[in-house]
Structures are given as C-alpha cells and as structure tokens.
C-alpha cells in the first residue's frame, strides 16, 4: 500500500530503493529491489536464505499523508454552499 517505485523501503533496518512494483492477487504487492554486493556484505542480508522472514518498514511520509487525509475526511462539513450563501443574501 505504501510502496512506490523509486521510493524507499527498509528491510531489517537496511534502507533500499524500490525499482518496480506490481499488484498481485488478494491485495498483495510484489516489489523489485536491486541490492549491490557491498550492501549485501555489510548488512544482515548476507545471511538470508530463501524463505527468510524479514521486517519491512515503508515510507513514513505516505503513512502521515494518508492519516492527514483520513482526518480531513472525518471532519464535519460546514454545510455552507454557494446555494446557501445565495439564499441568505451573501451571494449574487
């Protein structure tokens, strides 16, 4: 949900750039990473085996943006419209 191509994702504390994303079945997301040999050797990634479970952290800005948008949608509407203003003599 918060993964974007050319954005960043953190895998077990290692920040990496997402090259591509693809929506998959059942709401899943597939993403591609290029990991250079230096990063592999200097991080826990060197110990990974197929099937290894990892901790992912996604773009914090996207999460904050979603929360702000949700809060603005939850705010009560004022009920003031152009028609209301016209009916009450404030709009011609």
Per CATH, the architecture is Beta Barrel
- Total number of domains: 1
What is the radius of gyration computed over CA atoms, rounded to a whole number of angstroms? 22 Å
The total beta strand count reads 4
Instruction: Report how far the terminal alpha carbons are from each other.
Output: 45 Å
State the secondary-structure class. Answer: alpha+beta
Based on Cα principal axes, name the global outline.
rod-shaped
Mean pLDDT: 86
Q: How is the secondary structure organized here?
A:
Layout: E1 8-11, E2 14-23, E3 29-33, H1 37-42, E4 56-57, H2 60-74, H3 82-87
Antiparallel strand pairs: 1-2, 1-4, 2-3
Overall description:
The protein is an alpha+beta fold. It has a single domain (8-75), classed as Elongation Factor Tu (Ef-tu), domain 3. Helix content is 29%, strand content 23%. The chain is built from three helices and four strands. It has helices at 37-42, 60-74, 82-87; strands at residues 8-11, 14-23, 29-33, 56-57. A four-stranded antiparallel β-sheet has the order 3-2-1-4, with no helix packed on it. Strand 1 (8-11) and strand 2 (14-23) form a beta hairpin. It is rod-shaped and about 70 Å long. The mean pLDDT is 86.
């Amino acid at each position: 949900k918060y993964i974007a191509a050319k954005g960043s994702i953190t895998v077990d504390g290692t920040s990496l750039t997402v090259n591509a994303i693809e929506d998959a079945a059942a709401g899943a997301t597939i993403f591609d990473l290029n990991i250079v040999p230096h990063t592999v050797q200097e991080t826990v990634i060197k110990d990974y085996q197929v099937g290894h479970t990892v901790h992912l952290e996604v773009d914090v800005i996207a999460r904050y943006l979603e929360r702000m948008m949700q809060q603005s949608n939850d705010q009560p509407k004022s009920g003031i419209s152009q028609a209301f203003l016209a009916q009450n003599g404030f709009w011609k």
